[in-house]
Amino acid sequence: MNPLAAIGRLTLNLFETIGQVAVFAFVGLAHAVRPPFFWRNYARHMVEIGYLSLPVVALTTLFSGMVLALQSYSGFSRFSAEGAVAMVVVLSITRELAPVLAGLMVAGRIGAAMAAEIGTMRVTEQIDALEALSTNPYSYLVAPRLVAGLLMMPFLVLIGDIIGVLGGYIVGVYKLGFNASNYLTQTWDVLETEDVVSGLTKAAVYGFIVTLMGCYHGYHSTGGAQGVGRATTQAVVSSAILILIANYFVTELFFAR
User: Fold this and answer.
1) Conformation bin of residue 253: beta by default, left when phi > 0, alpha when psi is -120 to 50
2) What is the structure's pLDDT at 1?
3) CA–CA separation, 119 vs 126, rounded Å?
4) What is the sign, positive or negative, of the torsion defined by CA atoms of 111, 245, 255, 172?
5) What is this structure's pTM?
6) Is the peptide bond before 36 cis (omega within 30 degrees of 0)?
7) If you write DSSP's letter for every residue of 69-131 in order, what string do you get?
8) Is 231 in contact with 220 (CB distance < 8 Å)?
9) Average pLDDT over residues 184-212
10) Could you read off the pLDDT of 81-109 as tens digits, one per residue?
């Protein structure tokens, strides 16, 4: 096999997939701003993403904040800079850890479920039945999920920010012996609006990515149960990769000097 031909074929396939995903996203968003609106579907997916995902995001950010405080204290004590623990915890949680960890958790929980549900509907011809009943599947299946991901992920991450900082506070005050008032003062003094806004912007981007990948891979799944399983795996893996790629570009947008 000619290696150049293989590379060229892979490149063409990559650009073809990017084009298909872009068109899918555009059509899905276009149906989110024009009737008909299936409000019960919007409410259902907002509850699934914003409320039912809360326990896993809360646990993840709580223990991340606790570990971060311990690790920061261990490292900073080598050059007598233990006082920077509160600053490191709040900036790391709000800028990076809460949005990225929440995005990955929601990708595993919600993205996989969306791909499996829509994929099952595709292979059992339920989507064809929707079209036969004059119900547009983009309005019924895709648009509510995209909007829910876009709106509810910032809500999840905002709560994750608070819980993550609380985890650092618990370890800092009750295990490492920091003064509670000083710890809170340092946390509040170093935190700026830009830190929180950048994290919430990332959350909205990740929410869109997770729901888009779940819908796209489920909608195009083929091959029965095996195809649904493949679509589920692809939705989670592609979401995780795109989240990490998007993380760099959003960080560059806010903090590049």
Assistant:
1) alpha
2) 66
3) 10
4) positive
5) 0.91
6) yes
7) HHHHHHHHGGGT-GGGHHHHHHHHIIIIIHHHHHHHHHIIIIIHHHHHHHHHHHHTTHHHHHH
8) yes
9) 93
10) 888 899 999 999 999 999 999 999 999 98
- Phi first, then psi: what are they for 125, rounded to 5°? 65, 20
Counting beta carbons within 10 angstroms of the beta carbon of residue 179, is it exposed (0 to 12), middle (13 to 18) or buried (19 or more)? Answer: exposed
Q: How far is 228 from 234, CA to CA, in rounded Å?
A: 10
Q: CA 215 to CA 20: how far, in whole Å?
A: 13
Q: Are 92 and 68 in contact (CB under 8 A)?
A: yes
Q: Is 229 exposed, middle or buried (0-12, 13-18, 19+ CB in 10 A)?
A: middle
Burial of 78 (0-12, 13-18, 19+ CB in 10 A): exposed
pLDDT average, residue stretch 45-68: 93
How many angstroms separate the CA atoms of 163 and 136, rounded? Answer: 40
- Both tokens of 206, joined, read 């990740």
- For residue 131, which phi and psi values (nearest 5 degrees)? -65, -35
| C-alpha distances in Å from residue 35, one per residue of 26, 125, 131 | 16, 24, 16
A 10 A CB-CB count for 192 gives 11
